[in-house]
Amino acid sequence: MATTVDENSINELKDGEPIIRFEHVQQSFNDNVVIPDLNLTINAGELFVLVGTSGSGKTTTLKMVNQLQPQSGGKIFIKDENITDIGLQELRWNIGYVLQQIALFPTMTVAQNIAVIPEMKGVKREEIDATIDRLLNQVGLDPEKYRNRMPSELSGGEQQRIGICRAIASEPPVVLMDEPFSALDPISRTQLQDLVLNLHAKRHDTIIFVTHDMDEALKLGDRIAVMSEGKILQVDTPTNIAQHPANQFVEAFFSQSVAHNVYDVYVGKMVMMGFSESVLPERHTAPIDISSDKTLGEAFDDLTNCEYLRVMDGDRQLGFIDAQNIVNYLSQRKRDEDENN
């Protein structure tokens, strides 16, 4: 007999406590082993990124969580409940899902798309309407202008914002995101990455995010799992992966992610690799703040007005950089490129 998801029990988990566990999970398609033996724990409240090349098993891993692709063997738990013991509808009602293809219902308005799961769960109409307006405001879309629009009237970035609203409308404790921004233009992609970080900081939900882009993983992830051929090669914080890659594959994958134009490299990436100061040296003028997602080109521009920049990730201070830190980083990058050629 299928059990139900205890939402209150899951929501009462403290950040950092295990919420999803894979125990010796296998996945095969037509006798082709895709995931040989996956063991992984994802903690409540973290933005966990699965990153890897095409065919690495990252999307398959994601889809096993909501059973779009049931595993061939092993067990997956949400908190302490085996997901195969949970009714499929109940499971999916409590897991938000954002796809690359967006997949809004084309004959339904924006408001109707967002309301799908709350209506299925029997939420009161006035609560649903309030949720729709609140979420639209949170993703930067005026409810008066967008509530009654059709998906065909929206840009790709706007459609994906509605997709995010739909995924979180019923306040699910877990949200899955499968390369949601890979088809968008660079500006929309950056805006939506920032939006996800902002919503996550407010909601403290657990997000599992799939991407093939290490730069995106480094920007978003509290922890990152690097996958290849159905195996996890390293699970760690962005900083530790940048500074201490587990093997040559992880190191190469990280190196290849760097922008072709060195001036397009994120400042935060340079700081993660150790090219910064933890404290501001004495007898220096007050630094200018710069966001970790700004580029080295923008940092050079700012350094014409001051000696040091304070690198910030939201309200969190990451470190201080000056022109010499950037030169040292670029020199190391050149040495690495020479060694690989």
From TrEMBL:
GO molecular function, one term: ATP hydrolysis activity
InterPro entries cross-referenced by the UniProt entry: AAA+_ATPase, ABC_transporter-like_ATP-bd, ABC_transporter-like_CS, P-loop_NTPase
EC numbers, comma separated: 7.6.2.9
Top-level lineage group: Bacteria
Record domain ABC transporter: where: 20-254
Family: Belongs to the ABC transporter superfamily.
PANTHER family documented for this protein: OSMOPROTECTANT IMPORT ATP-BINDING PROTEIN OSMV
UniProt keyword list: ATP-binding, Nucleotide-binding, Transport
Record-given protein name: ABC-type quaternary amine transporter
